[in-house]
Amino acid sequence: MQKSSSFIFTIVLVVSIAFILLIAVLVMFHQIRIDPVAAMIKDKKDISLLLVVHEDGSPITTQVVIAHPNTKRIALFDIPHDLGAIIPKLKRVDAIRSLFENDGIEEYRDAIAQQLDYEIDYYFSIDTSNLQCLVDLLGGLYVFIPDPVEDNENKIYLPGGRALLDGEKLLSYFTYEKMTYGSQELASRYQEVVLQFLYRFGIQYSLFQDYSRFFQRCYNSDLDRRSMESLLKFLSKIDEDSMIQQRVLGTPRRVDVEGQQVELLFPHFEGQLLKDTVRQVRQTLEAGTAIPTGGKVTIELLNGTRRNGLANRSSELFESYGFEVIAVGNAESFDYERTTIIDRQGSPERARMVADSIGATVVETAPPEEEEQVETEDDENTQEEQPMPVEIEADVTVILGSDFDGWKVKNGR
Question: Fewer CB within 10 Å, N side or C side of the chain?
Answer without folding.
Answer: N
